[in-house]
Amino acid sequence: MSSEENLGVSINAELVRRLIAAQFPEWSNLPVTAIEPGGWDNRTFRLGDHMSVRLPSALAYVAQVEKEHEWLPSLALHLPLPIPVPLAKGAPAEGYPWPWSIYQWLNGDPVTTDHISDLTAFARSLARFLAALHSIDATGGPPAGQHNFHRGGRLAVYDAETRSALLALAGRMDIAVAGDIWTAALSSEWHGPPLWVHGDMSSGNLLMKDGDLCAVIDFGCAAVGDPACDLVIAWTLLSGESREAFRAALPLDKETWDRARGWALWKALITVADQNKSQQNNERSWQVIGELLADYRQKSDR
């Protein structure tokens, strides 16, 4: 089911052309091309050679527009890799009911492990980016909440959902170990100052060039709070030596990593428990669950 099913207007290249022509006529002669995959929270289009257009696909994602316009320009000044910089904010029109954005285009290819030249070096580069993000002054930043699906907030928000998924998956996986992972994740809280978090640190939001990390995109789930949610990629992309290099490069305690494991488990469990998810998503989520269980057992044996 498309997240824009009840929107009343199709978010497509023709809509974007009309919006650009009406609100930014100086760019109306530039070609508009849909990006595939176009994203779930937002639909993304390329505008000419140097810009992109993003439109929220549902009401739940609209708050991200103002947040990104307010904070991304200042965050970009302190980060070692490029991030999207908003250039203009569009208004509701042409049957589309929400604000939307034009960003500077970032060159790069979607990250796949097959094309990373050195996964351990990639992991260290990613850790440097996160360490820089987490070190930026978070004064006045948006606290975690519904606007970013509680990334950077307390995992307990998803306790009932996670336990329901575990019950549904009984007999298909080791729910005892998974339950231990979840219990460990809920047993601590972040007691440090709120830190900036990306909130959706996944391979789909990383760009690479010549096998190396070159940009980080999609800050719609950004907030200030607990950095544990940003560590999920340790299990969704990294493994073995690269995971350990990533862990070693970030100055975070065991409890934070326990919570990170919980964030990864929650997302993987609800994906495999959802019969509407694609087979590809299910397969990858089962792999993540396997990585989480093996990693937890290994750490417990030490």
Q: Any overview of this molecule?
A:
The chain is α+β, with helices and mostly antiparallel strands and about 300 residues long. The protein folds into 2 domains: about 15-105, Phosphorylase Kinase, domain 1 (2-Layer Sandwich), CATH 3.30.200; about 110-300, Aminoglycoside phosphotransferase (APH), C-terminal lobe (Aminoglycoside 3'-phosphotransferase, Chain: A, domain 2), CATH 3.90.1200. It is built from 9 helices and 10 strands. The chain has helices at about 15-25, 65-75, 120-135, 160-170, 175-185, 235, 240-250, 255-275, 280-300; strands at about 30-35, 40-45, 50-55, 85-90, 100-105, 110, 195, 205-210, 210-215, 225. It has a 5-stranded antiparallel sheet, sandwiched between helices. Strands 6-8-9 form a 3-stranded antiparallel sheet, with helices on one face. It has a two-stranded antiparallel sheet with strand order 7-10. The longest helix has 23 residues, at about 280-300.
Brief write-up:
The protein has 302 residues and is an alpha+beta fold. The protein has helices at 13-23, 63-76, 119-135, 159-168, 175-186, 233-236, 240-248, 254-273, 279-301; strands at 32-34, 42-47, 51-56, 86-90, 100-104, 109-110, 195-197, 206-209, 212-216, 223-225.
